[in-house]
Amino acid sequence: MKMKSIFRIMMLMVAAAILIAGCTKETSEVRLDPKLGTAKVFDITSNSATVTGFVVAEGDGFTEKGICYDTEANPTIASSKTPFAGAATTAAFHVPLTGLAYATTYYAKAYATGPAGTVYGEELTFTTKPVVPTLTTLVITEITGNSAMGGGSVTVAGGAAVTARGVCWGLTDPPTIADSKTTDGEDIGDFTSELTGLLGNQTYYVRAYATNSAGTGYGPTVSFRTEIDFPAVTTSAVSQITKTSAVSGGDVTYDGGSAITARGLCWSTDPDPDLNDNVIAGGDGTGAFVSDLTGLSVNTVYHVRAYATNSKGTVYGDDIAFQTLADINKFWVVGSYNGWDNSDNAEFIISTATNPEAEGYVYFPAAGEFKLTTDHSWDDAHTFGDDGSGGLTNPGNNIVAPAGYLKIKANITDMTYSVVATDWGVIGDLNGWGGQVPLTYDSDLHIWKGGMNMPAGGWKFRANDSWDYNYGAPAGSNNLVAGGDNIATDLEDDYAITLDLSHPNEYTYRADRWGIIGDATGSWSDDQNMSWDAVNGVFTLTLDLVVGEIKFRANDDWGYNFGGDLGDLSLGGSNIPVAEAGNYTITLDPWARVATVTKN
Question: What is the rounded distance in angstroms from the CA atom of residue 31 to the CA atom of residue 61?
Answer without folding.
Answer: 9
